């Protein structure tokens, strides 16, 4: 919400407070001021000019030589390229020495040989956003009213000597989506009164109900609909003051009728709509639910297809507006409009929100109806519109208001005790102070029998329960006044749970390995939801997804990590290493919700080492990824209980994929991305892994036991085995470890050979076996006896010693 202080001063005395001080007071009372905007932006030497004459530039087709009076007979020659500049106009002129937004300084200059002593300005050049500049002046200079005085301050005239506060409103404070709502808030903060607009105008002898009748066939969605008829309206530009206020509020001026409805929208927070009476082709307005598939062309010239639960305004036959969202092009106010029907209504917020979302059509009106408008402002807003149409558009308001009114306007009543308020705030505010605060907020309050009986004004639809009153008292009394107190009761020493502590170890390790954390969406497409999943379970889908790419809860972290890696590689990152710790969603619990399981996933692509000065480069491969995973298990004290078994996973390379098991149970996968998958996302060789982090961190581990530095030497024996090429080296390693006595301390693969010096279909795998006894020096006989048992077990398994 953008709040012009010049506009706000019409309703409340802000006591000449500096804008920053006022912003601070508003923020401290509960509504955050996001920005304090000086609309003048430090501009100087910008005045009103009068174009005395205009001639074509002799050497440039698109330039004009203008003689411009800038006050007291001072005529300056200015070269202007705007297509709409013309003799007799009052324009905005930046004189030499003027400073404009963006650090622009105006100097005397020559343009194609002709001297130019200043610049005739467009509104955009004065820092006004193009989206709020009137369309007639969007591509040229802004033309001022004829009564503007040459030489006077142009910034004052067009409302740029103003400060705008940008309010960051939370959804519950819909009352502050209007100037009057903000005025009530500021008045309460400053202990001032609110000056409401005085509504007074003459009506015609004709009656409005002779021209139009109103009926609502959906009173639950539209309990109040009012229509006022104004004749003899003259469509024209709005007066400058009205345009200035609208642009300050971020609204583009159109014509006087539309601008009046927008002005009241911003002033009262009540959306209005203006129909061209003659274009309605009917003497009745009927509010009803749309027919399934019914169509309407809205004011943005888009055809909309409606559903049976959408509420529409009709002329008794066809829709002329989508209730609370946008009007129809078939009843739009145009330059030929002479009679206007003003709609002021109360629409159900849930219905408006649903329609707005389904149609992808959000407007200032729908935003206010969704959050709730003040039921007691609907009719005053209509009366205010009739007044301004009479004053500004020369209209003649017909007598009476045609309406259907079944709306309950009873204010919400809250009964609360002062003790309840003080107990919640931990302080002692006197009853007098509480009454003062509630009276400043214009709440009807009565103190009786130790209770406060409060009727909240209908503009404050966020006030429903006792705690709402506590908040109102607290924020106006001052959050800074709430004393600091220590909590009472039994205290415990805080700390991490074992699971949380281990998860921090995991995060620290993978980041220490050089991977960066990624955070991706939990929602994905149905196609990707089960891809790479460790367990395939029933998927969970959203009833109303925002897009096709976000319909289903994921069962694997890898697909989005692949997308993230592709995104970074496409932006010239030559190497990517990412990890994510997040939940996957599997099946359904007894409560009907998906079961969440925390996983760890990582992805590596590009270079692993790049030491240019040493001439050392190495791309990532399967063993880099496997080394990180093994290092993690070693850090967690689980490495001896983990095994890697050859496996197949859809989307991973069949020769570079392993299933990771902990104590024989599958807890993860690791492998290279299949070339076909890499091609889809334009990645080179890429490796991924995903682990069931919950299962890993829940695994019990033995306490670390210190082992003294060995006093006795170790003895190693090497063996080379001829195996079938398909036999995993890990399987042979397990046989060796199981067959070895307690003297066998370590087994490592140090060579694998496949070539012409060995039988086809076979391979040679060489192992180093380490023997050691911490209590004594081993003899050759001791080692030979233990080694012979290993050789015998290998022979029985079909492994031939070379």
Automatic annotation (TrEMBL):
Cofactor entry: Mg(2+)
GO biological process: phenylalanyl-tRNA aminoacylation
Catalytic activity: tRNA(Phe) + L-phenylalanine + ATP = L-phenylalanyl-tRNA(Phe) + AMP + diphosphate + H(+)
Main localisation: cytoplasm
InterPro entries for the chain: aa-tRNA-synth_II/BPL/LPL (IPR045864), B3/B4_tRNA-bd (IPR005146), DNA-bd_dom_put_sf (IPR009061), Fdx_antiC-bd (IPR005121), Fdx_antiC-bd_sf (IPR036690), NA-bd_OB-fold (IPR012340), Phe-tRNA-ligase_IIc_bsu (IPR045060), Phe-tRNA-ligase_IIc_bsu_bact (IPR004532)
Cofactor details (free text): Binds 2 magnesium ions per tetramer.
GO molecular function: ATP binding; catalytic activity, acting on a protein; magnesium ion binding; phenylalanine-tRNA ligase activity; transferase activity; tRNA binding
Domain TRNA-binding as annotated: residue spans: 40-155
Domain B5 residues, every copy: 409-484
UniProt cross-references to PROSITE patterns, sorted A to Z: B5, FDX_ACB, TRBD
EC numbers, comma separated: 6.1.1.20
Domain FDX-ACB residue range list: 710-802
Keyword list, A-Z: Aminoacyl-tRNA synthetase, ATP-binding, Cytoplasm, Ligase, Magnesium, Metal-binding, Nucleotide-binding, Protein biosynthesis, RNA-binding, tRNA-binding
Subcellular location: Cytoplasm
Pfam families on file: B3_4 (PF03483), B5 (PF03484), FDX-ACB (PF03147), tRNA_bind (PF01588), tRNA_synthFbeta (PF17759)
Binding, Mg(2+): 462, 468, 471-472
A GO CC term assigned to this protein in UniProt: phenylalanine-tRNA ligase complex
Family indicated by similarity: Belongs to the phenylalanyl-tRNA synthetase beta subunit family. Type 1 subfamily.
HAMAP family: Phe_tRNA_synth_beta1
Subunit structure as annotated in this protein's UniProt entry: Tetramer of two alpha and two beta subunits.
Protein name: Phenylalanine--tRNA ligase beta subunit
Organism: Ureibacillus massiliensis 4400831 = CIP 108448 = CCUG 49529
Native organism taxonomy: Bacteria, Bacillati, Bacillota, Bacilli, Bacillales
């Amino acid at each position: 919400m953008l709040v012009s202080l010049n506009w706000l001063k019409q309703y409340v005395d802000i006591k000449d407070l500096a804008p920053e001080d006022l912003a601070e007071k508003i923020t401290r009372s509960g509504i955050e001021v996001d920005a304090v905007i000086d609309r003048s932006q430090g501009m100087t030497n910008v005045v009103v000019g009068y174009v005395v004459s205009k001639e074509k530039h002799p050497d440039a087709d698109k330039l004009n030589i203008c003689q411009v009076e800038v006050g007291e007979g001072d005529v300056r020659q200015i070269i202007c390229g705007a297509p709409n500049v013309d003799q007799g106009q009052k324009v905005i002129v930046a004189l030499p020495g003027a400073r404009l937004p963006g650090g622009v300084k105006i100097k005397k200059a020559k343009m194609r040989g002709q001297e130019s002593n200043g610049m005739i300005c467009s509104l955009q050049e004065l820092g006004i956003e193009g989206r709020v500049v009137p369309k007639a002046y969007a591509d040229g200079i802004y033309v001022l009213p004829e009564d503007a005085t040459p030489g006077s301050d142009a910034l004052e005239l067009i409302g740029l000597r103003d400060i705008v506060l940008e309010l960051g409103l939370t959804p519950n404070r819909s009352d502050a989506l209007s100037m009057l709502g903000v005025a009530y808030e500021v008045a309460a903060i400053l202990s001032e009164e609110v000056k409401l607009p005085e509504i007074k105008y003459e009506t015609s002898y004709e009656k409005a109900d002779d021209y139009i009748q109103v009926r609502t066939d959906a009173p639950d969605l539209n309990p109040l609909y009012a229509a006022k008829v104004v004749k003899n309206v003259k469509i024209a530009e709005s007066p400058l003051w009205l345009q200035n206020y609208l642009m300050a509020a971020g609204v583009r001026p159109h014509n006087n009728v539309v601008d009046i409805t927008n002005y009241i929208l911003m002033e009262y927070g009540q959306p209005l709509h203006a129909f061209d009476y003659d274009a309605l082709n009917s003497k009745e307005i009927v509010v009803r639910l749309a027919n399934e598939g019914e169509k309407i062309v809205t004011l943005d010239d888009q055809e909309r297809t409606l559903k049976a639960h959408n509420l529409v305004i009709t002329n008794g036959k066809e829709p002329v507006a989508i209730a609370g969202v946008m009007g129809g092009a078939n009843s739009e106010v145009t330059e030929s409009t002479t009679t206007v029907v003003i709609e002021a209504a109360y629409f159900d917020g849930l219905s408006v929100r649903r329609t707005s979302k389904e149609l992808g059509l959000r407007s200032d009106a729908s935003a206010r109806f969704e959050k709730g408008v003040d039921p007691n402002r609907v009719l005053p807003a209509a009366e205010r519109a009739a007044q301004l149409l009479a004053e500004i558009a020369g209209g003649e308001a017909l007598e009476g208001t045609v309406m259907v009114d079944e709306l309950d306007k009873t204010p919400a009543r809250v009964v609360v005790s002062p003790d309840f308020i003080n107990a919640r705030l931990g302080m002692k505010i006197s009853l007098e102070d509480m009454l003062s605060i509630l009276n400043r907020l214009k709440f009807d309050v009565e103190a009786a029998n130790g209770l406060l009986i409060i009727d909240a004004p209908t503009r404050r639809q966020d006030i429903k329960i006792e705690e709402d009153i506590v908040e109102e008292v607290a924020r106006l009394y001052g959050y800074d006044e709430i004393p600091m107190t220590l909590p009472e009761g039994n205290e415990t020493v805080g700390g991490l749970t074992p699971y949380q502590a281990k998860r921090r170890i995991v995060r620290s390790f993978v980041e220490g390995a050089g991977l960066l954390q990624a955070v991706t969406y939990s929602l994905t497409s149905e196609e990707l939801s089960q891809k790479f999943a460790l367990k395939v379970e029933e998927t969970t889908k959203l009833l109303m997804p925002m897009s096709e790419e976000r319909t289903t809860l994921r069962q694997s972290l890898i697909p989005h990590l692949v997308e993230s890696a592709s995104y970074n590689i496409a932006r010239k990152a030559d190497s990517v290493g990412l990890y994510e710790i997040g939940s996957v969603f599997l099946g359904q619990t007894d409560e009907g919700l998906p079961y969440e399981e925390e996983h760890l996933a990582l992805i590596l692509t590009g270079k692993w080492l790049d030491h240019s000065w040493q001439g050392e480069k190495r791309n990532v491969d399967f063993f880099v990824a496997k080394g990180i995973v093994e290092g993690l298990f070693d850090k967690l004290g689980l490495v001896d209980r983990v095994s890697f078994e050859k496996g197949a996973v859809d989307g991973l390379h069949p020769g570079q994929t392993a299933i990771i098991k902990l104590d024989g149970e599958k807890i993860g996968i690791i492998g290279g991305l299949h070339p076909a998958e890499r091609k889809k996302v334009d990645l080179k060789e890429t490796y991924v892994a995903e682990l069931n982090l919950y299962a890993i961190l829940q695994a019990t581990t033995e306490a670390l036991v210190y082992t003294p530095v060995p006093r006795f030497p170790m003895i190693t024996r090497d063996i080379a085995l001829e195996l079938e090429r398909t036999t995993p080296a890990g399987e042979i390693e397990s046989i060796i470890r199981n067959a070895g006595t307690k003297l066998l301390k370590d087994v490592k693969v140090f060579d694998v050979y496949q070539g012409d010096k060995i039988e086809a279909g076979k391979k040679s795998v060489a192992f180093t076996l380490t023997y050691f006894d911490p209590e004594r020096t081993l003899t050759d006989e001791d080692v030979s006896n233990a080694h012979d048992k290993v050789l015998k077990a290998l022979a029985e398994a079909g492994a031939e010693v070379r």
